[in-house]
């Protein structure tokens, strides 16, 4: 219960930090920064774990986005590697529950604005799950697919605030059915690429 309250406070502060520096600008004043085509970020997530009604858990997330294309038309096309660890606020009846994923796949960021960057992505990889034991069986791994989307808001120079929604398909979990954890991630990113400064 205490973690839920703290998570809400943290998310509110992150949102406030993202919104405070926003102001109008007719056009960019200059281009600054580096040239490494990479974005690195970390955040916290809140997921419905799809293990009984109303069961939610929180955890941590980290991601790296690579944008190798320099042409204007393809500059938003990249590749993301993402790791999630749902390991906090376990439901009382699921004291052993933990869900981890390591995913990778294409991402496309719509970069028509210097302040707001919506994106869509489709990631795939491996999911690891710990669950209440049935005999000695209490852990397994599965193939996972995950469509997702969200937006990043520039806070200051290379720093961005990210809000992401992800819907996962854990294929053939304990039979022919998929497990579908889904939820939101809020965090901050550092964009190593050059940026357009504003007056």
Question: Which secondary structure elements does this structure contain, and how are they paired or packed?
Answer:
Blueprint: H1 2-19, E1 30-32, E2 38-48, E3 56-66, E4 77-88, E5 98-109, E6 116-134, E7 137-156, E8 159-167, E9 169-170, E10 182-191, E11 195-197
Antiparallel strand pairs: 1-11, 2-3, 2-10, 3-4, 4-5, 5-6, 6-7, 7-8, 7-9, 8-10
Detailed description of the structure:
This protein has 199 residues and is mainly beta. The protein has one helix at residues 2-19; strands at residues 30-32, 38-48, 56-66, 77-88, 98-109, 116-134, 137-156, 159-167, 169-170, 182-191, 195-197. The protein has a single domain (2-21, 40-194), classed as Porin, CATH 2.40.160.20. An eight-stranded antiparallel β-barrel has the order 2-3-4-5-6-7-8-10. A two-stranded antiparallel sheet has the order 1-11. It is elongated. The N and C termini lie far apart (44 Å).
